[in-house]
């Protein structure tokens, strides 16, 4: 059984990507990050998802990105609420964490090397990517090229692959695909600004995309929202 | 004044690289990592060095690489002692931390983006690199290519540069260069396995390279070694 290292945020996208990796026959190792995010509740969801998908191992790496700052997800900048889909599509929002996917993929790569794995899975999507540069195909290919020269395994001939199976899918497609694969999407968490009990705000970019996704997919949204 | 983000381990190499950045007129922002290394004492040295070189800011990011493991610097594997220079040159040692420079450069990149900087400095050296793949020129160029597509600044046209001014220098050259630039190299720390007070073991790869470097440079070694 080949091993897949899956970046898990406990959200719809990474959970569906993980289910797809399992469906392709990979043994799942999921990795989440406690990086000082204000929506730390996602770590609870990531653990639930790893259990539900029978991950061989679920690891949480502590990485205090607050030292670096510069983003609404780690700083005291307000999370934007009620933006239109047009605004999300064209702006790089303040919720962008500088170089986040570069950092997280680098850590997935480290774990892959330790476990003798070469397959990394991330739930990046270029359709509803909310303007993040590090969710684009060119970024993923550049990372594979880096991995080949960055690691002992790469130098010895291993070929690392960054799988982003959702890259061409919109949120509704992702929700349909996850549902087809039998995941309970009620286990997942998307909100950037939940209340202390994990209840979703309903108005940040992430909640808006999630709500519209369920609507467009014609699947009842299991999420409980504050507003 | 252009800003330089300098990866600092408090050792000879990163300290000399930092002094070279300062000498080139950059304003210094130094970044160190508390990554569960057994030689955490290097963080004390990194702070001393940042003060001595009048860094504008010195940050320490917590990143618990022990969760990922797989290296003698973070795990319970023994640090190898008394190896020949030949062995160091040809093997990738167990002190290799999987994908470490990829992870650390990614975090430097994040800080650069927050500060509006595009110049990253690391003390990588391909001569006495002790077999680490992520200290090689091909790796550094691949990282620059990644940075261009990984960041908001890159997408908007910024060109990131990874400076590795020691790449062609051996340890003796680095010690000479650092001394010429007026740094007190007694402030630096190299040992992978110091005693609790920070005293160097004298026998790990890093101590051996340091001792021979001072000898070869014909400069008195200010370091106090246990053995």
Task: Please specify the SSE layout and strand pairing.
The structure is a homodimer of 227-residue chains.
Chain A: E1 3-7, H1 12-23, E2 27-34, H2 42-52, E3 57-62, H3 85-90, H4 100-115, E4 119-121, H5 137-150, H6 152-155, E5 161-163, H7 171-180, H8 205-217
Helix pairs in contact in A: 1-7, 7-8
Offer a few descriptive terms:
Rossmann fold, 227 residues, homodimer, alpha/beta, 8 helices
CATH topology of chain A: Rossmann fold
Number of self-contained structural domains of chain A: 1
SSE run of chain A? EHEHEHHEHHEHH
User: Which spans of chain A have pLDDT < 50 for at least 5 consecutive residues?
Assistant: none
Report the mean per-residue pLDDT of chain A as an integer.
88
CATH architecture of chain A: 3-Layer(aba) Sandwich
CATH-assigned homologous superfamily of chain A: HUPs
Text of the CATH class of chain A: Alpha Beta
Q: How do the strands line up in the largest sheet of chain A?
A: 3-2-1-4-5
Q: Which band does the percent of strand residues of chain A land in?
A: 5-15%
Number of strand elements of chain A: 5
Distance between the termini of chain A: 44 Å
Radius of gyration of chain A: 17 Å
Structural classification of chain A: alpha/beta
Oligomer: homodimer
What percent of the residues of chain A sit in helical stretches (DSSP H or I)? 25-40%
Largest interface: A-B, 44 and 44 residues
Number of helices of chain A: 8
What overall form of chain A do the CA principal axes indicate?
globular
Biggest sheet overview of chain A:
5 strands, parallel
């Amino acid at each position: 059984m080949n091993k897949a290292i899956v970046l898990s945020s406990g959200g719809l996208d990474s959970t569906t990507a993980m289910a797809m990796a399992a469906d392709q026959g990979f043994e799942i190792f999921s990795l989440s990050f406690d990086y000082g995010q204000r929506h730390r509740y996602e770590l609870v969801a990531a653990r639930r998802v790893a259990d539900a998908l029978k991950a061989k191992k679920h690891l949480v790496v502590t990485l205090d990105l607050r030292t670096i700052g510069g983003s609404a997800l780690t700083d005291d900048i307000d999370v934007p609420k009620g933006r239109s889909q047009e605004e999300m599509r064209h702006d790089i929002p303040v919720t962008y964490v500088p170089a986040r996917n570069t950092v997280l993929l680098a850590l997935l790569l480290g774990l892959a090397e330790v476990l003798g794995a070469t397959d990394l899975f991330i739930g990046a999507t270029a359709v509803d990517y909310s303007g993040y540069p590090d969710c684009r195909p060119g970024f993923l290919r550049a990372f594979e090229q880096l991995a080949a020269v960055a690691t002992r395994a790469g130098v010895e001939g291993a070929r690392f692959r960054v799988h982003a199976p959702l890259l061409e899918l919109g949120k509704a497609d992702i929700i349909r695909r996850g549902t087809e694969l039998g995941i309970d999407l009620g286990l997942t968490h998307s909100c950037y600004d939940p209340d202390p009990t994990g209840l979703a705000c309903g108005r940040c970019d992430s909640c808006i995309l999630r709500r519209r996704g369920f609507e467009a997919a014609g699947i009842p949204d299991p999420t409980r929202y504050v507003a």
